[in-house]
Design a protein that fits this description.
The protein has 169 residues and is α+β, with helices and mostly antiparallel strands. Helix content is 22%, strand content 30%. The chain has one helix and nine strands, in the order αβββββββββ. The N and C termini lie far apart (87 Å). The relative contact order is 0.21.
Length: 169
């Protein structure tokens, strides 16, 4: 009989051990989960704000030429060369007109050009990225238009269209 009691009390002890281990596992697991979800971190950090250098726009640099020409009552593409002097790439966001169109110096009698800049929608599509320390040629389709009020003396002129280009890092 003593052997049976020992087996029964051994089984009872094993059951108690299993129950205790289960309770401890649950308590420790819930405690760990609570600690994980309620932890608050405190610290400090710093960052330096650099200054972006001016990205420049030049029109018709030697060797650049448009595929379309401007005629009274029509439109033509505008070509600009954008240069990025920064150590990081920038994305061209938009172009807007920034003054009146003028004819080149070899056409001094072309005072009424009738030429306007048609700004493309912002943000510029397709996206144009200018790599760090480099320049890209950007073609803006149908961005120049010429009215029928243009003077005959404007024939063959190259027009300068002042534009402002917005870029983002």
């Amino acid at each position: 009989m003593k052997a049976n009691r020992w087996i029964k009390s051994g089984s009872l002890a094993a059951a108690k051990a299993v129950a205790t281990a289960t309770v401890l596992s649950l308590v420790l697991g819930v405690g760990s989960a609570y600690a994980y979800w309620s932890t608050i971190g405190i610290g400090s950090g710093s960052a330096a704000n650099g200054t972006m250098q001016t990205v420049t726009v030049d029109a018709l640099v030697a060797g650049d030429s448009p595929a379309t020409t401007l005629v009274p009552g029509g439109t033509a593409e505008v070509i600009v060369r954008a240069s990025n002097p920064n150590a990081f790439a920038v994305q061209v966001y938009s172009f807007i007109a920034n003054g009146a169109a003028t004819a080149d110096s070899s056409h001094p009698l072309c005072t009424t050009t009738g030429v306007t800049f048609n700004a493309p929608a912002a943000p510029l599509t397709p996206t144009v990225t200018i790599p760090a320390n480099s320049s890209v040629l950007i073609t803006l389709p149908a961005a120049a238009s010429m009215s029928t009020a243009s003077q005959s003396s404007c024939q063959g002129a190259v027009f300068h269209l002042p534009v402002t280009m917005a870029v983002r890092k």
